[in-house]
Design goal:
The protein is an alpha/beta fold. Strand 1, helix 1 (27-37) and strand 2 form a beta-alpha-beta unit. The chain is built from eight helices and nine strands. The relative contact order is 0.16. The chain has helices at residues 27-37, 54-64, 79-92, 112-120, 142-159, 175-181, 192-203, 227-258; strands spanning 14-20, 42-47, 68-72, 97-100, 125-129, 136-138, 171-174, 208-212, 214-216. Helix 5 (142-159) packs parallel to helix 8.
């Protein structure tokens, strides 16, 4: 059942970018839920040449629905690279709002109206958050929750980012936000892309709003998250954090000289 609000009508053209790699078991199911929950919103699947035929399956769906499209990539180059590609295509196509969500059902299309409301209320970036009051997770082991909560605390301390769930992937950006960030200069490719985008948005002085969502662990297919992916993300965040602290120190020193 579709859900909309007065705020949504002023947002303009909206597209949800959905990256895929071997999501044939999930993609039709999640697209149908999204199209049912938000009939006015378009869907752009960015497929990294899935061996299981995910891209071809979306082509079949797109043939019957002009609000669905698929961007075919030639290789699996990371989540961030797929999103960056999709965002660039969406910007070139003139969309006013560009969102992102997973294909596995962990981000529920039925809750997208919460993000749309927050964007309509003036946010520049809206994050569907697991770790703000009212947010929750379903079917996660304690170890996974510890890793996510701990990682986000680390991000807040190191980067000074006032976001509870900087690693979340259920988001809406205004096109002006992506233009201010300059999406073409973003080089992060893996899961750290999410933190990178939130950090860049904050650095531009733009408004980030978090809304609570219920995150549901995938039931079908394999998760793309691993310890190696998490470790690589933390390494990059540490490097950014050190750079940020050095920049803060330089600003203070310059301030003292001019005082």
């Amino acid at each position: 059942m579709s859900q909309s609000s007065p705020n949504q009508s002023s947002l303009g053209r909206v597209v949800m970018v959905v990256p895929t790699y071997n999501e044939a078991d999930n993609i039709e199911w999640i697209i149908k839920r999204l199209r049912s929950a938000q009939p006015e919103i378009d869907v752009m699947v960015v497929d990294d040449n899935s061996p299981d035929g995910t891209g071809k399956l979306v082509e079949t769906l797109a043939a019957d629905d002009p609000q669905i499209q698929v961007v075919h990539r030639t290789e699996k180059a990371g989540l961030g690279a797929a999103y960056r590609n999709g965002f660039r295509v969406a910007l070139d196509q003139g969309y006013d709002v560009i969102g992102e969500m997973d294909a596995d059902g962990s981000h529920q299309p039925e809750q997208l109206h919460l993000l749309l409301d927050a964007l309509g209320a003036g946010a520049d970036l809206v994050i569907g958050s697991r770790w703000v009051p009212g947010g929750s997770i379903v079917n996660w082991p304690r170890s996974r929750e510890f890793l996510s909560r701990g990682g986000n605390i680390y991000v807040r301390i190191l980067l000074g980012l006032k976001v509870k769930d900087a690693t979340a992937g259920f988001r809406l950006f205004r096109r002006q936000t992506l233009e201010a960030i300059d999406i073409d200069t973003v080089t992060s490719t893996g899961y750290v892309f999410q933190t990178d985008m939130a950090y860049r948005t904050a650095q531009q002085g733009l408004r980030i709003t978090e809304v609570p969502i219920e995150f549901v662990e995938r039931e079908r297919g394999d998760s793309k998250m691993s310890k190696n992916v998490a470790t690589e993300s933390l390494k990059l965040i540490t490097r950014w954090g050190i750079s940020e602290r050095r920049a803060q120190l330089r600003r203070r020193l310059v301030g003292h000289r001019h005082a």
